[in-house]
Design a protein that fits this description.
Blueprint (H helix, E strand, L loop, with lengths): L2 E6 L7 H18 L5 E6 L2 H13 L2 H4 L2 E5 L16 H6 L4 E4 L2 H6 L4 H13 L3 E6 L3 H4 L3 H15 L16 E4 L13 H14 L9 E5 L7 H5 L6 E4 L6 H21 L1
Parallel strand pairs: 1-2, 1-8, 2-3, 3-4, 4-5, 5-6, 6-7, 7-8
The chain binds 2-phosphoglycolic acid (PGA).
């Protein structure tokens, strides 16, 4: 599976003009690096800029578009209706959005998004053909009790998040499914997880997925990833890429990450 680097811009940047500029800077870096045949990148801006960024994306030439796509940071489970503030899957797809992040820990924490809500979002998004990046990960209080406790926490999130989803398995674009393991204490703190522990958790997560999904699902690591440590994570076969917050707001940093990950894969392939 090609490694995936997903940029989660969160509630940034502060204006549409700056969002367009950041997108162009990233696209330029990716084109320069010539590495996108070996690593895939997805940019997830805030909803308010999706139309503008999707428009900019459409203007790119074919080479620049290769291996690059646009994602949303969330999606609702109903298509339309009296759901103030929400955006449905078809609305996103009409803009050419391919990916959606679901269940990010910040939404779980600040907006009290539950596993049941995450489950409804995933079910709907997959059924409608969007590629889902499901976020899971334990808080510091759980991790301090040890790896076994962290595993139990993550297992529970996966089971509840994916309840019933597998029943419709054959209709889902499973090849487009990803789980991002993001220990909450590592997000935005500069204290990333130990890469070996993250790889072990990735292996564990793969085993916990519905039958037949493991080999087709990408497991990403997220939490204080930058160009300095991204290779430490993706060098493990278990880790299929990264979900990047802070560092994705700097085009040079994100470009360097994709170049490193993609370049390394290319090198490997050439050697084989
Ligand atoms: P970070 O965020 O890279 O800033 O730690 C990761 C995320 O929240 O997805």
């Amino acid at each position: 599976m090609r490694k995936l680097l997903a940029a989660n811009w969160k509630e940034n940047p502060g204006s549409e003009a700056r969002a367009r500029a950041l997108f162009h800077a990233v696209a330029e870096k990716l084109t320069e690096s010539h590495s996108r045949s070996a690593a895939e990148a997805v940019i997830c801006p805030p909803d308010i800029y999706l139309d503008a960024i999707a428009g900019e994306y459409r203007k790119l030439n074919r080479t620049a578009k290769r291996g690059l796509s646009i994602g949303a940071q969330d999606v609702f489970w109903e298509e339309r209706g009296a759901f103030t503030g929400e955006v449905g899957p078809a609305m996103l797809q009409r803009l050419g959005i391919r990916y959606v992040i679901v269940g990010h820990s910040e939404r779980r924490r600040y907006l009290h998004e539950t596993d049941a809500m995450v489950n409804r979002k995933i079910t709907r998004a997959l059924r409608d053909g969007l590629r889902v990046i499901l976020c899971v990960g334990e808080p510091a209080a759980v991790r301090s009790k040890g790896i076994a406790a962290a595993r139990r926490f993550v297992k529970n999130q996966i089971k509840k998040g994916l309840t019933g989803v597998e029943r419709h398995g054959s209709r889902f674009p499973i090849g487009g499914f990803a789980v991002a393991y993001e220990p909450i204490w590592a997000i935005g703190t500069g204290k990333s997880d130990n890469p070996k522990d993250a790889a072990e958790m990735a292996r564990f997560i793969r085993r916990e997925l519905p039958r037949g999904w493991g080999s087709r699902t990408r497991i990403l690591y997220g939490g204080s990833v930058d160009s300095g440590n991204v290779l430490d994570f993706v060098e493990y076969n278990e880790v299929d890429g990264a979900l990047v917050g802070g560092a994705s707001l700097r085009a040079g940093e994100f470009g360097a990450m994709v170049a490193k990950v993609g370049g390394r894969r290319l090198l490997r392939r050439q050697r084989q």
